[in-house]
Write a structure and sequence with these properties.
Layout (H helix, E strand, L loop, with lengths): L2 H17 L2 H23 L15 H31 L2 H6 L5 H29 L9 H25 L9 H15 L11 H7 L3 H13 L15 H22 L8
Helix pairs in contact: 1-5, 2-3, 2-5, 3-5, 3-6, 3-7, 3-9, 5-6, 6-9, 6-10, 9-10
């Protein structure tokens, strides 16, 4: 079989395995939905929220939706794959795969195929819940949906490749969650997911800007928030050109690192 055919076959296997794991479905699939519902309920009782003078007030659900969409990309791609691959290396799954015709490229393709499918389902459920339960208005222009689409694809693939690279850090499968989850959690707090980005100190915004999640959240805000909210961003603009450039750069970094660090068996095992 070709590399592409093996990757597609592996993706089907990964997708079936994903939906058979209840804890994985909750913590990486339904977690953003749960957090959107939680924040909307907590902050929704005090009325609409505004980012400042001249910026229209919006409901908590409208303001938190872009961040939760971006967090879903990080959880599905980065956190899920980093922990999953570390577990597979620890329990001998990767060692067995290394003795088959499956190449690392086909293995990567299978993992990325899985996160693209599950990430699309996750985003669809999040949007449906936001629209039907919390009456969040959806974008009404093709340009906004196009922005959502390319931010989604670039962000998810970059997150997946970085997850593959980071999976080399945990020495055992048991330590994978302790290593990976704190990284994902800190990134969510400083990147405008749980705290509105414009409320963060400027120096912390600059730190967050080094990493891809802040740019994924910014792209999602450009797609789902009114144009007036662009004045709250660094530079007072959505800066979608920079969003695309940074995400592509991190995608390339993730690809290089994942290829350099990936091993079927740890060298120090």
């Amino acid at each position: 079989m070709s590399v592409v055919a093996l990757g597609a076959h592996r993706a089907g296997y990964e997708i079936r395995g994903y939906f058979r794991s209840g804890d994985t479905i909750f913590f990486t699939f339904l977690f953003p939905v749960f957090m959107l519902a939680l924040f909307s309920t907590i902050f929704g009782g005090s009325g609409d929220i505004t980012g400042g003078p001249g910026v229209p007030a919006l409901s908590a659900a409208e303001l938190y939706l872009p961040g939760m969409l971006a967090a879903g990309l990080l959880l599905s791609g980065f956190q899920n794959l980093a922990v999953d691959i570390a577990m597979e290396r620890s329990d001998g799954t990767l060692k067995r795969l290394g003795g088959t015709p499956l190449s690392p490229v086909s293995y990567f393709a299978g993992k990325i195929g899985q996160v693209l499918v599950t990430g699309a389902f996750q985003a669809a459920i999040l949007l449906i819940v936001a629209a039907l339960v919390f009456q969040v208005p959806m974008p009404d222009t093709p340009e906004a949906w196009a922005t959502f689409a390319w931010v989604f694809v670039l962000g998810l693939i970059a997150s997946a490749l970085l997850g593959i690279a980071v999976s080399a850090l945990p020495r055992t499968g048991k330590s994978a969650t302790a290593v990976v989850v704190p990284i994902a959690l800190v990134l969510q707090f400083i990147s405008g997911v749980y705290i509105f980005f414009w409320q963060l100190p400027e120096w912390l915004q600059n730190v967050a800007g080094i990493f891809p999640l802040a740019w994924m959240a910014r792209g999602m805000r450009a797609a789902f928030l009114p144009d007036e909210y662009a004045v709250l961003e660094p530079g007072e603009t959505w800066g979608l050109g920079w969003v695309a450039l940074v995400l592509v750069a991190w995608l390339v970094v993730g690809l290089v690192l994942s290829r350099l660090t990936f091993r079927w068996i740890r060298r120090d095992a």
